[in-house]
Amino acid sequence: MIGIGMSNATRTSTYLYSQMLSNTNDVVMKKVLKEYADNYTYANDALQSSLQDLSNMSFDYAFVDVTAAKDYPNSCHNAYRRFPGLAYPPEMARREEYLVQICDIALGMIGKLLD
């Protein structure tokens, strides 16, 4: 599951950076897209860290890392609220929900290892 989450985060970050390049005239949108892309990069990094934690049998740290990865997209969603007039794109809502679901499944598995 973590590999799937990493793939999702990487694809989403790449997608957002490409959108940032195509929206060169809108400074506010560019700022939001960059912040959003960076957060998906951070989510990917957190998921990579969780793999290392799992290989070291540090299940509690893996749980924390996956929880962080799950939360990064939510902060992106909140970024849109700071800029009146910007609508949260449905495509991003779909991608966010997908990563959250993947992380929830991974957290459930790690939780079983902690029991």
From TrEMBL:
Pectinesterase inhibitor domain ranges (all copies): 2-109
Gene3D superfamilies for this protein: Invertase/pectin methylesterase inhibitor family protein (1.20.140.40)
InterPro entries, per the entry: Invertase/methylesterase_inhib, Pectinesterase_inhib_dom
Protein name: Pectinesterase inhibitor domain-containing protein
GO molecular function: enzyme inhibitor activity
Species per Swiss-Prot/TrEMBL record: Papaver atlanticum
